[in-house]
Amino acid sequence: MNYIDQNPLLFCRPLRLVSACVSVLEKGLCEIAAMSVQVVAAKMAEVELKDIPSKELAPGLVKNEPNVAVAAPSGEPSLSPTPSPNPAAKMPQASAMKRTDPQQNGGETFIGRDGAVAEAPRMKKIQFADQKQEFNKRPSKIGRRSLSRSISQSSTDSYSSAASYTDSSDDETSPRDKQQKNSKGSSDFCIKNIKQADFGRREIEIAEQEMPALMALRKRAQGEKPLAGAKVVGCTHITAQTAVLMETLSALGAQCRWAACNIYSTQNEVAAALAEGGFSVFAWKGESEDDFWWCIDRCVNVEGWQPNMILDDGGDLTHWIYKKYPNMFKKIKGIVEESVTGVHRLYQLSKAGKLCVPAMNVNDSVTKQKFDNLYCCRESILDGLKRTTDVMFGGKQVVVCGYGEVGKGCCAALKAMGSIVYVTEIDPICALQACMDGFRLVKLSEVIRQVDIVITCTGNKNVVVREYLDRMKNGCIVCNMGHSNTEIDVASLRTPELTWERVRSQVDHVIWPDGKRIVLLAEVRHPLILSSVTTLTLLSPQALALIELYNAPEGRYKQDVYLLPKKMDEYVASLHLPTFDAHLTELTEEQAKYLGLNKNGPFKPNYYR
After folding, report:
1. What is the model's pTM?
2. Is the pLDDT of residue 458 over 70?
3. Where are the bilayer-spanning segments (predicted)?
4. Contact residues for 220 (Cβ-Cβ < 8 A; gap 6+)
5. Which of 35-49, 302-316, 327-341, 450-464 is least confident?
């Protein structure tokens, strides 16, 4: 026999006590519930009767101010009853109870104290005048279109710092057809809406906090004005971070005129803030191809002003000047280029002997390669896909074309989110890196039928051709992380048998005759707006390259393409370290001599990447 069997009373007493407590609790809860029902019934009667005049009540009922209607004694005038000393008299049993008769389509009756049943007058529903007018109005054609657009955009647009504040604007007028002036009376700009300047200014102030290198450079060099006399024409993404760069160049003495290198990436509110600040900006989100080249031409072709420095992203600005205004190169001191595509164009010009001025390749600087291409894309690929498609990454099969720095960042992020990642690559060294990092190296033709997402980041052309697009599965997402739209053959999709359907801003469905559809992001232009992480270090090398080329003595740089000096690369990195509360270790004289280095750097050879 166990201990419980030997001592039954020891365990029965607590059980009986618990049982008694439960019974008391249940009884109390039931009473509380009953009282709650009664109170609710009384309140309902109050709500239904409080607006009914006394004369409209059925005979035998009086209005019991201020709460309920009660039955009056037969033959007596309608007076408020004398309060009863019994508290129960205040309960709903003493009041006229409402009853709904389902056989009379919701007709209501009241029961008096004597049990008599009286039918209450039907009450009219109250409808406010403005409500009646609002819902009875038939919207005009324009009104319906505006309402539809506002609803669809408010449900699909992403209101992040990277998204334009003006996405939901109803103003469909082209900025080229507007006459706008800033508060100083200047109209030398073309943007979406100058009235959004205050909002853009707040965006820029936030970006300044995330760009310590440029802010430190501005503080240290603005007294010396190393760019005094420089006339910089730029063609880059116009975001809050680019605005910090432009204002830094201005603080260092430069005059700037700017256009966008991408028709989708401009933050309209930031462009407005720059225009209000006196910058000549020609850009807005959603430009057409014709608008794109018109804006570049407005930057370059202006009476009484000629650029002497070029800051380019993709080479479009350099190409336009070379094609339309070649004589301008006689006064241009140098070109700073930061993209793979633009650098390729410069090397082609140099090889053909057509490069007229020195050019600085910022794209291959270490800070640009690691921060913009690797670390930034590791974050922006997820942000861009989530913002445009709301897709879940776990378990999705993704193929990333190219395993350079951009590809490495994309693959790392997608793998961390649980995606199954494949890699295509032409370079054996990058291919080996992909294998060592745990990714399966494939040909695109081997996996194109099964993958859920296709991402290109090669800088090449015709990576994804129509044949591959035809073989993709239904719902496959296609996007490009490179600079231009040459990697995916979008032109082949502009055929009569395929239907294009705009789903939301920068998202299109391309539908095949059998119903299959693919999701195309930003028509495979660069769909991911640059974030503060992207430009954390990228814009600092650009500023330093401009200063170097502008102030270089004649003869230091010839008509060729140069890498950013390693000393400048290291200087850019050092400007960011205080942000992370990082502390560098310094070499002793003996250690520097042993390594054959200057103790202050540079610490790596120029070929180090």
Report:
1. 0.63
2. yes
3. none
4. none
5. 35-49
